[in-house]
Amino acid sequence: MVFGQVVIGPPGSGKTTYCNGMSQFLKLIGRKVAVINLDPANDALPYECAVNIEDLIKLNDVMMEHSLGPNGGLVYCMDYLEKNVDWLQAKLEPLLKDHYLLFDFPGQVELFFLHSNAKSVIMKLIKKLNLRLTAVHLVDSHLCNDPGKYVSALLLSLSTMLHLELPHINVLSKIDLIESYGKLGFNLDFYTDVQDLSYLQNLLAQDRYSSKYRKLTKELCDVIDDFGLVNFTTLDIQDKESVGNLVKLIDKTNGYIFAGIEASAVEFSKIAVGPLDWDYYRYPFIISYLKCSAHNCLYFQFSQELHHVLSFDRTLC
Ligand SMILES: Nc1nc2c(ncn2[C@@H]2O[C@H](COP(=O)(O)OP(=O)(O)O)[C@@H](O)[C@H]2O)c(=O)[nH]1
Ligand SMILES: [Mg+2]
Known about the structure:
By secondary structure, the protein is of the alpha/beta class. It has a single domain, classed as Rossmann fold (3-Layer(aba) Sandwich). The protein is built from 13 helices and seven strands. A seven-stranded parallel β-sheet has the order 3-2-4-1-5-6-7, sandwiched between helices. The chain is globular and about 55 Å long. The termini are far apart. Binds to RNA polymerase II (RNAPII). Keywords: GTP-binding, Hydrolase, Nucleotide-binding.
């Protein structure tokens, strides 16, 4: 079994910096790490990558040849990768014996809640190479300072969780900077735990831009509340303790903590019920019980609810 992380999130949320910091941390604790750059828009990589999508296809070439902008170009590159997944498989095979894998994906968010290409690449690799991957979804913590943007981050996180159907952790990145963006409307716990979004209504009313969409935002918040799946952990990539806490969480979601243990029910349960030094229930996962049928059902329900909110009542805006 090979373990690893699929690192996703909007542009600038810190994915490449994360892969660099996380690989250094994992090396320090004795793991052999391979970083795989699948973002053709990544230039000047800070890490040494084991596989680089640039060796398969270049974003600039695609944009020139097909007269596409950067967004269309990235969708094309992911489609091309999906068609050439054997190339990626062949590159990964020599690493499988003893490496932990970090996949640095593009920041085009629609690739992860709308298009099927990136998901198809991930699923094919999981199946063919017997990988155990957790999706680490980074969201810049500065979005917490704007209630409208925070709701959009919640919606993005939920739709990505439901679309990707992987063990999933949402992370508020750059948490070291959060105070520099001004005072938050609530304690940080409010934003990480996502317990009761009705409190956001007052903040939305005070905001010049968001107040216009108050009713729409309320309906969207109800959808997020109904699913009750989204919450966040926090990360400062330069803080070892912060990275260490996240690693413990990821190891639990992708099963790394069980690796190398005799597959006996007794050994498994000893670890599963062992004492934890973090607050397990505060953190987000879609655990692997979210099997395919349940996923399809949830994703369908989500699409229906969203469609209902967006099309039903024009007076919402
Ligand atoms: N202060 C701080 N800056 C960060 C952190 N993570 C990333 N950054 C900065 O955020 C910017 C965007 O990061 P990058 O990794 O290129 O984002 P990507 O587009 O998601 O790959 C860079 O200037 C990073 O130095 C963090 O934890 N703290
Ligand atoms: Mg990047």
